[in-house]
Amino acid sequence: MPLPVPTVPEGVDPAWLPDEAFRPLGTRRVLVRGSGPLVETVHGEVAAACARFGGRVERDASPEPYDLLLELTGDDGGEAFTCERRAGLTTVTATGAPGLLYGLFHVVRRGPAAFAEDHGLQCHRPGLALRMLDHWDNVAVHPVMGQVERGYAGGSLFWDDGRARGDLARIRAYARLLAACGINAVSVNNVNVHAVEARLLTDRIDEVAALADAFRPYGVRTHLSVTFAAPMVLGGLPTADPLDASVRAWWAAAAERVYAAVPDFGGFVVKADSEGQPGPFGYGRSHADGANALAAALAPHGGTVCWRAFVYDHRQDWRDRTTDRARAAHDQFAPLDGEFADNVLLQVKHGPMDFQVREPVSPVLGALPRTRLAVEVQATQEYTGQQRHVCWLGPMWSEALRFGHEGPAGPVVGQRASALVAVANTGDDPFWTGHPLAQANLYTVGRLGWQPDAEPAELLDEWLALTFPAAPRRLADGLRAVLSGSWRTYEKYTAPLGVGFMVQPGHHYGPNVDGYEYSPWGTYHFADRDGVGVDRSAATGTGYAAQYPEPWARVYESLDTCPDELLLFFHHVPYGHVLRDGRTVIQHLYDTRFEGVAEAAEAAEVWASLAPLVDGARHRRVAERYEEQLRGAREWCDQVNSYFLRKSGVPDERGRRIY
């Protein structure tokens, strides 16, 4: 029997899978061959589309001609598939059931083009094996962090009133959305593991199993964030030393119980020795020692440890300019290359700091050739507008994945890595991501995980075509216009030329130029009367630039070659320093603030003009967000410009009003 397609609860947006997106599939004659649970998911999708639009689906054999053949030819569990169009027949074949599922969504994504011109055999396989969302969800509402830490789309999809949600209909619909864009794993709780969440590993594993049951029909595996101190917190042991035999035995027994409840469990996500979380340092052990202890427990079951490399001194003395938070991950992990077990993924933020609007690509991603790496990005827009501002991050992520540490001719990040992990931007909001247009970020994460070298603009067009399948050209053009340049617009009115953290402490929303300047967090811009920026050169600064191999160490070291967009990340320069476009740093700062406000206002006007073409609820929600974005952009502009006018004493050469 075909598996019924999950029903999106009433009032919840179908996102990039509205019924209309399936019309080109649902009007055809389709043959589905193969067996197994995921094949039944494929059959169910096709049957629902055909029932809706008048097509026909058969199973396994029939003499009549077909428009589409979806065939599973093996059972290797792989995700690859082939697609061919010949003599009026589109054929999708796979040797693993997940591949057939992805092949189906490939056909849906292509729409009418999937049944148009003939083409030869095309092979499709994911560039990165693991494509995961980390949900920073708390089981119980945290007094400071709330239900979802850094969550801007309502409460948790998984947890309610301290327990797993009883009605899993929306989670099944969510699994379908994720599979359609290529995501194959989720971690269902916060990396900051509190006492309640810790118990998901043991006496509350049945709740995790229920969630896993909801995700499984769409090939999405469930992972858990665990506390390194679990043997003490949950097992009553006197130690969590990763080299202690009793500790290793405890982890092995815990893994056995987890896999008994969730046979396809994906593994553990671990934040250790970071921002107060416990870790191996407390026992004089290395990160490799800690990760490998958990990896040994998971290895017999095929599980993976995602060990986060976000480790730094968060009790810095702001007076000490020799300390540099940006250096921390490389200093700690590069010497451990080759020491991690094969089922450990070192999860590295794409930049060295913390998901700022502009950072260099982390040198760690090129420094451990014998270690499996996961690139971590943040779909939830903690520092990029918190889903109150339009900020499509596809171009930023693409730049990171295409970056070659050994130069443009060398292997790029997307080729070196084994996984792409994103901090999730979804919640129980009717539009999933709070801001309807922020759905584009989630879709893009999945598709970049599948194809790291994809052109972001093409992925944006895919999302537009799926989300608004019957949209007139004017709507598509308008949406493309407001989204495609939104990251650079946000950068223009916020932090300039690679400096960051000019935000309100704690919640990180809105401008506060000195908000973290004298804090212990190591997030400084060092603006004074003469200049601004952080000297990270090897010659006179913290030496961070030297963590890169050539040619980048040389490029970043020199003022003559450092890219302007990263200038203040690597160098402290006078306000009169001349950029490549002929403007001084201070004038660039003034100009781009005003430009950012103007671009935000223009985008809001474009959106307003699209009202007749968009359903009312969606248009109202986005219009409200644009109103807040424009207010916020003006506040950023005024505060940043006023701050630097008062610091530098240099007036705007164009005479615009600065307070």
Give your account of this protein's structure.
It is a single chain. This protein has 659 residues and is α/β, with parallel strands linked by helices. The protein folds into three domains: 19-124, 2-Layer Sandwich (Chitobiase, domain 2); 130-318 and 346-467, Glycosidases (TIM Barrel, Alpha-Beta Barrel); 491-533 and 572-648, Alpha-d-glucuronidase, C-terminal Domain, CATH 3.90.1330. It has 20 helices and 20 strands. The strands form five sheets. It has an eight-stranded parallel beta barrel with strand order 7-12-13-14-15-16-17-18. Strands 2-1-3-5-4-6 form a six-stranded mixed β-sheet. The protein is globular. 53% of the residues are buried. The model has no long low-confidence stretch (mean pLDDT 97).
Lay out the secondary structure.
Blueprint: H1 23-26, E1 29-33, H2 37-53, E2 56-59, E3 68-72, E4 81-86, E5 89-94, H3 97-110, E6 119-124, E7 130-134, E8 137-142, E9 146-148, E10 159-160, E11 163-164, H4 169-181, E12 185-187, H5 195-198, H6 205-215, E13 221-226, H7 230-233, H8 245-261, E14 267-270, H9 287-298, E15 304-308, H10 328-333, E16 344-349, E17 373-378, H11 394-401, H12 413-416, E18 419-423, H13 439-450, H14 456-467, H15 473-484, H16 486-493, E19 531-532, H17 552-557, H18 567-570, E20 573-574, H19 585-609, H20 616-648
Parallel strand pairs: 1-2, 1-3, 3-5, 7-12, 7-18, 12-13, 13-14, 14-15, 15-16, 16-17, 17-18
Antiparallel strand pairs: 4-5, 4-6, 8-9, 10-11, 19-20
